[in-house]
Amino acid sequence: MKIHTRKPTALAALLLTATFAFAGCGGDDGGDSGSDSGSGGDGGGALSMTMLPKNLGNAYFDTSTKGAMTAADELGADMEEVGPETGSPDAQVSYINTVAQQGKDALIISANDPDALCDAIEEARSADVKVVTFDADTNPECRDLFINQATSEGIAAKQLELIAEEIGGSGEIAILSASANATNQNAWIATMEEELASNPDYADIELVDTVYGDDEDQKSFDQTEALLQNHPDLKGIISPTTVGIAAAARYLSDSEYKGQVALTGLGTPNQMREFVEDGTVASFALWNPGDLGYLATYAAAALVDGSITGEEGDSFEAGELGEFEVGADGTVLLGEPFTFNADNIGDFDF
Amino acid sequence: MNTDVQPASEVSSGEALLVEPSRLSPTRRAITTVLRSRELSIFLVLLAVVVLATSKNNSFLFSSDGWRNFLLNPSILVLLAVGQGVVIITRNVDLSVGSVMALTAYLTGRLFIDHPGLPIIVVIAACLLLGAVLGLVNGLLVAYGKVPALVITLGTLYIYRGIMLTWAGSDRINAGDLPREFLRLGTRSVLGVPMLTIIAVLVLAAVGYYLHTARGGREMYAIGSDPDAAVLYGLPVRRRLLAAFVLSGALAGLAGALYTARYGTVSSSVGSGIELQAVAAAVIGGIAIFGGSGTVWGAAIGAFLLVTINRALPSLGIEDFWQRAVVGALILGAIVLDRVLAVRQARKLAESRDRS
């Protein structure tokens, strides 16, 4: 009991101290990794932006920052990356405050919490900092734009496209999902079911089973085995979860079904590299975090120079990615998921 | 004719085994022991599950994958159940094994990433060592702190998991980070028997033999039967408890290394909840939760049964919820059976005492 009452107080004290400490020492904290374009814009002249991922040392965000740096170079902007070591919501607040004090032009952030950061972001925006979220959004009213990596329709359609291609357009398929109550998974599965029923291209594909691996390696493993056993004619498996697809790939890679049952879904290149190289998996999908950071930077630049305001229907140019339009709720969609295969997997490290 | 033999034929062989085993001939004694053992009944349940699942679907056992998975899937749980069994026999419990396993699984990955070219045997030794040290911490706290093991190891479960979360964070070990040779250890078979199963069986045989024959092993049973009497009798209780926890930790450490070899991915949630499966395997396998009786053979068969049921039920088309319910029913059944047998045994002993 004692411990329970004491802990939040201690935490609050710690946080307060941390906030003061960060607020006190201005611009040069935490930004030592990846800030190769120099730091500290002076307001006038070059565009200055800060990249604030959920946490540092995370390969996914390293990739998105790399994309953002590329865009910043193209734009001639100063880009600095700062971020906490761990992905807790409170940890990002001090960095947002710092950005406001430095008078940067824009903040690109992957939010650790949709609500907790809003006050700090509000303060930054009142100091004329444009705020673009990517990867994980805050409440729509507290930021200028959100760069959405993919829609459920896009994700569902992409996975069906990949599996249809690999099994030659006909045969039995099954889905290995995360947990039975995962909202995003269920939305994707429902969309896939609709698409299978309505799209004539998929008329010969039959979804015979959906199983749940609960995003545990071991359970996903066992469920893959059960799928293969219960459906001897199974031609392909879709696993729209990074844990599931890696476990299923590991199972398939040394089973008698390797090369006979196709596997695709959502995965990260580092997890899947082994299995793409040994031929268990031909291709899988995910958005490209590099493109995400790249697009977010162009969007932030467009906001700063006033060519867009974040209204629905605004459009802007994003370098080599082409033209994008702002959708409802100040959201910009990156596009359909990116396909990883043996030809390009070597280019990615996340 | 011979009046001395008369009472012997009156009592059943089971009762004779209980009251005065030496009255039976050695062969008959051995047969009766086996026939009346809990291990055999659990083994028959396991057999029934396998037969049922195979009759529904031939490839459950008679395909190269099916046969391999039947032997391979339980081997990690067997290691944990053996360690857990020894601890439970001393009337303790080790709930921290899942967290220990997670730490060593991650250590395995980190060693291969940070020190490429490190021999596999060195990595496995490091995991055994780390597991043993973590087990020693449990043992010291239990043996010298005089706090129930349930509380201590529940605490270390969270502490070790906390260390794991801090250490690994959102990082995960992927199959691509590990040497091929090590990954092959997780799937390779020798004469149709997977390597991991061979390792698990060797450990099981060594621990089972020690418990059955060695003085230290018998003393563990004595401690579990009556801790106070064991102290009064002058048994080295603390030393035996330390040994039990170190063994359990070391086996969890080994299990962590083998987990990495088998699954090829390690995230910070590895092994969450597996400690309960290990306890369940031991209890289902006939180790009394209050210590003092049961064998690690039983625990190993219990582990096989748990894993095989989990494999079989989806094949039989039974839903997720019922799979868990079946495991729960098995545990309850085992404990009720335990209780019934204990009461009956006490009654029989009392009866034969009154008769003589």
Automatic annotation (TrEMBL), chain A:
The lineage of its organism: Bacteria, Bacillati, Actinomycetota, Actinomycetes, Propionibacteriales. Pfam families: Peripla_BP_4 (PF13407). InterPro entries: Bact_Solute-Bind_Prot2, Peripla_BP_I, RhaS, SBP_2_dom. Its main location: other. The keyword Signal applies. It is found in: Cell envelope. Gene3D superfamilies: 3.40.50.2300. This is Rhamnose ABC transporter substrate-binding protein. GO terms for molecular function: carbohydrate binding. The gene is rhaS. GO terms for biological process: rhamnose transmembrane transport. Residues 1-23 form the signal peptide. CDD domains: PBP1_ABC_rhamnose. GO terms for cellular component: outer membrane-bounded periplasmic space. Keywords: Signal. The keyword Signal applies.
UniProtKB/TrEMBL annotation, chain B:
InterPro entries: ABC_transp_permease. It is a multi-pass membrane protein. The keyword Cell membrane applies. The keyword Isomerase does not apply. GO terms for cellular component: plasma membrane. The chain crosses the membrane at residues 40-58, 70-89, 95-113, 120-143, 149-169, 190-211, 241-261, 282-309, 321-341. Pfam families: BPD_transp_2 (PF02653). Keywords: Cell inner membrane, Cell membrane, Membrane, Transmembrane, Transmembrane helix, Transport. GO terms for molecular function: transmembrane transporter activity. It is found in: Cell membrane. The complex is composed of two ATP-binding proteins (LsrA), two transmembrane proteins (LsrC and LsrD) and a solute-binding protein (LsrB). Part of the ABC transporter complex LsrABCD involved in autoinducer 2 (AI-2) import. Probably responsible for the translocation of the substrate across the membrane. This is Autoinducer 2 import system permease protein LsrC.
